[in-house]
């Protein structure tokens, strides 16, 4: 779902001063496991909940990727989100609160 360095590695302090995320890391809707999960959610909770689940997976990846560079209160990095969809209120609301403020 994310890039090779979006999970599992910390780039604190001087190891990273800029995060660039191009596009939105949505999962592959043609993946068999993903289709099964989405079908289950739709049956149990409705289309809207499945839609929210899809967006939440994407935004969790975005927030985790941002968090790879900023590990403590004195750490800093420029965060560049290269997709106009990040400015849409439903998507922007899913960014970590400290990212939305800045």
UniProtKB/TrEMBL annotation:
Pfam families: Helicase_C_2 (PF13307). One of its GO terms (molecular function) is DNA helicase activity. Residues 1-88 form the ATP-dependent helicase C-terminal domain. InterPro entries: ATP-dep_Helicase_C (IPR006555), DinG/Rad3-like (IPR045028), P-loop_NTPase (IPR027417). The keyword Phosphoprotein does not apply. Keywords: ATP-binding, Helicase, Hydrolase, Nucleotide-binding. One of its GO terms (cellular component) is nucleus. One of its GO terms (biological process) is nucleobase-containing compound metabolic process. The keyword Hydrolase applies. Coiled coil: none annotated. It comes from the Eukaryota. This is Putative ATP-dependent RNA helicase DDX12 (Trinotate prediction). It comes from Myxobolus squamalis (Myxosporean).
């Amino acid at each position: 779902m994310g890039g090779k360095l979006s999970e599992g590695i910390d780039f604190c302090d001087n190891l990273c001063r800029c995060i660039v995320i191009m596009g939105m890391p949505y999962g592959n809707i043609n993946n068999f496991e993903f289709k099964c999960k989405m079908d289950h959610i739709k049956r149990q909770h409705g289309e809207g909940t499945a839609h929210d689940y899809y967006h939440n997976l994407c935004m969790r990846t975005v927030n985790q990727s941002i968090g790879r560079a900023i590990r403590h209160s004195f750490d800093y990095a420029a965060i560049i989100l290269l997709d106009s969809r990040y400015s849409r209120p439903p998507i922007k609301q899913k960014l970590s609160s400290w990212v939305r403020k800045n």
